[in-house]
């Protein structure tokens, strides 16, 4: 399933600093533009045509943005898109020490300082919990590329012996994507297990120290979340997959500024080389005239092939410094981000068909068609007819006889088992259900159905010669006999069409689910709707309280700051006769406001905690009702439309023996075929107890089952 191309989204995040170069870097209010001016150097003259300022148009500029705001603007849509079957990639690029690892992983000291990866894991398992109509499996992998060598950061966790142990290799997949052969995948069931794997991989990463960063990442890391989703309500073999690549690139370094030596210097050379190859790939992808893209130049670009211009929703976060000393590296990063913005990706839904379930479904369909043909042969007294596929020789023989007959070289086609079998395979006898209760007895001048084999069934074509016209006048031709038999057969089968369709092709689960919610499951569905409405109300209330708490907190901080500034500006303090300090009117007003805000904050926070507890309980009730509704629907659907083997065998063999069908199954059968009339020449008996219950026809006098 293809979709239109979309450009890569690019965000700029500026590292907070006390010495921000406001004269060089300007962030307009639209939060999508960044203006950079070059630093004036009196020692170097500038030509008139040399640019001294640049304007960069981006998808967003994150200046003094919190970790939560960064995740909401950058990553949330990509993570949620994975549940619809779209691949996603979020990667951080920039100078060493600019905040890439902090943006991607965050700091472990404070909960609110979590990065994109921990928040994405939380979002994934929250969605898994809320989407009760699907089953999910989540796997994690953690790849490190150090000095052009790929390392599995989770290889130390050996829950089971893997056959893929050895050197990691990037391989091409048939659909155009790539995968890493030998990289371990770990199944996780909750957020806690996922975070443990993340922390385990982080502990195995290689870090170093230089002048710009005491904890510098010396390798590129790709943390991948693999999601597989299957529907609980749909019975087909389709399922969707997606993967989220969360990439923390090592930072580019200038050896003159970092002062790296020895091993750290060699690592910096590998890092700069791989980033240079990455930029070459971006330049090739941005140029529509380029036919070849050098993905295989480095392990990094090869592993990210489907993330760069492939089947993926890609977002780049360019981390920069705001200081004047790093303005050249900042311009280099911004130019790379501008080129990245020109790259087009083509995200599409990764929909697959489970081959095992598909084979089972086709085998059931083949068995069903064979049962149909077997039932037809039994009804028409055609014993010994083969239902197997004709060989090429048999098909050629039938075709040759028909052509000779039509050209006049053959007076009559000898109808044998081969010809009859070919006709049966064409018609398939789809009008006869495997569970039909009809027993046809063809009587009268047209003869028995068993005589079909001795006449040209479907091939009784009258020739134009006078001899054949004279022979056809005294008695009905075989073609006429066949036509009468077919008309009688169609008349009988049309009476049972409604029941046959019901028994042979159950309705889709989506349609049946709507009917179930309106009838059998109406009470559970009503309770579910009430609980969802209550949950929505409490969630809205919780959101309002959250806004009030945040507003009050900002007011508290502002009043506290104003009060501190006011006290610092005072030259001294007034003292009463008793020796107690006397507050000025302005200071007293600030103190009273601060006290009132603190009381409001405490009260609102108590309401917030209480409402949050109610939201959790309401969410539990909604999930419980949804699960109950789906469980009841599955039971109802199986009982209503998917008859067990013992019921089907009874329907195919004729009258029912006492006690042969259980009471609940018989009641289900009767309740679901109301409105269908089954005319038979023998009584259709449904025995709910030891004595049969007979259903008499309204006007025909024949026995039938009806509504």
UniProtKB/TrEMBL annotation:
Gene Ontology cellular component annotations, sorted alphabetically: microtubule
Single GO biological process annotation from the record: microtubule-based movement
Record SUPFAM superfamilies: P-loop containing nucleoside triphosphate hydrolases (SSF52540)
InterPro entries: KIF6/9_C, Kinesin-like_fam, Kinesin_motor_CS, Kinesin_motor_dom, Kinesin_motor_dom_sf, P-loop_NTPase
Binding positions (ATP): 94-101
Record keywords, A-Z: ATP-binding, Cell projection, Cilium, Coiled coil, Cytoplasm, Cytoskeleton, Flagellum, Microtubule, Motor protein, Nucleotide-binding, Phosphoprotein
Cellular compartments annotated: Cytoplasm, Cytoskeleton, Flagellum axoneme
The keyword Iron-sulfur is assigned to this record: no
Residue ranges annotated for the Kinesin motor domain, each copy included: 7-343
Quaternary structure, from the entry: Interacts with HYDIN.
Entry's family note: Belongs to the TRAFAC class myosin-kinesin ATPase superfamily. Kinesin family.
PANTHER family: CENTROMERE PROTEIN E, KINESIN FAMILY MEMBER 5A
Functional note: Essential for normal male fertility and for progressive motility of spermatozoa.
UniProt name for this protein: Kinesin-like protein
